[in-house]
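User: Hi! I'm a student and our assignment asks us to look at how structure tokens line up with a sequence. Could you show me two examples?

Assistant: Happy to help. In each example below, the sequence comes first and the structure tokens follow. Example one:
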Amino acid sequence: MSRRRKDHQAHANHERWVISYADFITLLFAFFVVMFATANADKGKARAVSEAVKAALSESKESKVAELVKAAAEEDKATAGGKPEDVKKELAPTAKLLSQQLHPEIAKGLIELKMESRGLVISFKQAALFDSGADVVKPSAIDSIAKVAQAVLGIPNPVRLEGHTDNQPIHNSRFNNNWELSSARSIAMLQLMTSKLNIPVQRLAVSGYADVAPVASNENEDGRARNRRVDVVILSSQAAMQEAPATPPDKETSSPAARTARTKQASGVH
């Protein structure tokens, strides 16, 4: 009898594989759930990126990206610089000089001068500088630009070159949209001022705003003509301090040659 009990206790359980199989199926199910969730998340991210790119390049309506850029541009103008009376006092001699030297162009409506909290803004209308849809500076505009360059050389203030367009879409063999056009025009001004008019490249910065920072309504041709422009912004001392790099340059990049190369790389000039 004791032997029968021993044989019964030693009997092998051939159904244990069911437990392992169930564990395997559970793990496999969890794996596919995770993979499915990851795939759908990636699709969502890809869709979001695609929509953002389409919105950024779309000329049919103002995108969210354009709204952000517009808000940043307006905030720059509102917060940059110091008190209006300080800015006017600092740059009034330069404004007076340019008003006299550019009087013919101002009278024809080709150039506008105005004082902002960030500094003195000299607005060149597109018609005075470029042919429609082009970024090659007209030879007839060089004398006017040279007058501005001469005034810039007489003061230490840094200068921003800002390209602007109207809201009419553009797509030609050279430019896919107004962002490219406005940026190319500001770079063309930089190249002219540095290569022909002897302004140190370290004093210049370029930006393109497309149609997100208009100065007039785009509902009529007169307004659109004012919006198609390149602004030469002579920054006040306070505005220049606010735009200065947060960290000092290291030894490797503090030489004039290194700063020139770095500025050219940042502005897209080669």
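Example two works the same way, sequence first and then tokens:
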Amino acid sequence: MKQCQGTKADGTPCSSPFVGADGFCGAHGPGASERMRQRGIAGGRATAEKFRRVFDADRLPRLTTPEDAQVWLEAIARAVGAQQLTDRQANAMTKALETWLKSRSALDAEQAEKLRTLLDELKKRRSA
């Protein structure tokens, strides 16, 4: 069986049995670096397209309520299960959602405090 005449990056001979007429595999023959670069670009585009299909703005609600965040979390979980998102991407998105929820709860607490203050002022005015 013929083997590729190329050398891997670590200096060892390539052992690919998929050899063309030139004696090299697809990764080591003439023009291979450009072909591999183009394949990498195509792979990146395919991954980006998967991401766009899963998290299309038309399919997920705008984040305005905690329920919206739950919809996003479910979509993230499904995408990870379907291998449409990497763990790293899912972790980043989940962290962003957690931050959004924390900031929202801080705003809710602030608004509740303002309402309590207004209510106390109204009670004082009523009793005066």
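Here is something you could point out in your write-up. The helical segments are 32-54, 66-81, 87-127.
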